[in-house]
Amino acid sequence: MNSNHSTHTNTFNDPRLEVHMSWWGMNGLERSAEYSLEQKIEMIAEAGFDGINGFIPSPKDAERWSKLLERYRLSLSVNAYPKTCNDMAILLKQAKQYGAIQHINVQVMTPFLIDNGAIELLRGIHELSEKAGIPAYIETHRGTITQDLLRTVSYVEALEQLRLTIDMSHYVVAGEMHTISNEAEALMQKLLERTSAIHARVSNGEQVQVDVGPSGEHPMLQHFERWWSSGMKHWRKVARNGDVLPFIVELGPPPYAITVDDYGQRRQEISDRWEQSLLFLRTARRIWSETARV
Q1: Domain containing residue 107
Q2: How far, CA to CA in Å, does 250 sit from each of 92, 170, 201, 288?
Q3: Spatial CA neighbour of 180 closest among 112, 131, 227
Q4: Domain with 142 in it: what CATH number?
Q5: Is residue 2 one of the residues assigned to a domain?
Q6: For 203-247, what is each residue's pLDDT tens digit?
Q7: At what angle are helices 149-158 and 115-132 packed, to 10 degrees?
Q8: H/E segment holding residue 247
Q9: What does the alpha-carbon distance between residue 4 and residue 261 come to, in Å, rounded to a whole number?
Q10: pTM greater than 0.90
Q11: According to DSSP H, which parts of 239-272 are helical?
Q12: Residue range 127-153: average pLDDT?
């Protein structure tokens, strides 16, 4: 096992950071395209990740996944795409049947539902999560119930219990935020107070996912690091013993990843997504250490 796992200074019961690698983000990597399921999981573990963010394994694959995750000492978080409370109830039942789900990241697929209807749906999803005993966090994501920054702020103001998966790349690209105004920053900070998980991807205001450079030279990274740091600080204020803050490195394959032939087969990416993923892994651990000293 990679030494990164043994360098944590906190005890198991202390609030802690877990950095997960997106299983979606493993698609199409040159180094892993021909790899087996176990080889990909081993690659994630050896890189120093704490877990995988993916989907609930199917019944026929559940035992295999459980054994591999245990062998490589990795946790599992999953994604859900409900449109209704009934959809979420079914997903939660499946999660309980599988067991050992660290949290559920929820993209609520009702982008045109607003105001009281949206608030009631979000309230219902939260209540189902509480009843099932499985944490579920609503992701800030385009094309979902949290389609835009303003309406998501209104949900936070209406629902004291609403907890979020923070992914600011969606609001940066949707708002074409080449620069971050004071007004935008204030709205972002309102959402960061509800941080329960973080998805790592950087937008430049034109593309949703850009290469930040081998050492993070891209000027937009400073804004995302500020938001990740702020989210961690807010989370630490309310965290209890045993709580986990998941930080998911989520760099997607094409068409999220920019390619040299966007009109064609879109196979040759301009970025090394795996190396960028490792940069975000290191960045998450650094910021977590910095927030511990505040």
Answers
A1: 13-292
A2: 23, 13, 6, 18
A3: 227
A4: 3.20.20.150
A5: no
A6: 999 999 999 999 999 999 999 999 999 999 999 999 999 999 999
A7: 60
A8: strand 244-249
A9: 37
A10: yes
A11: none
A12: 97
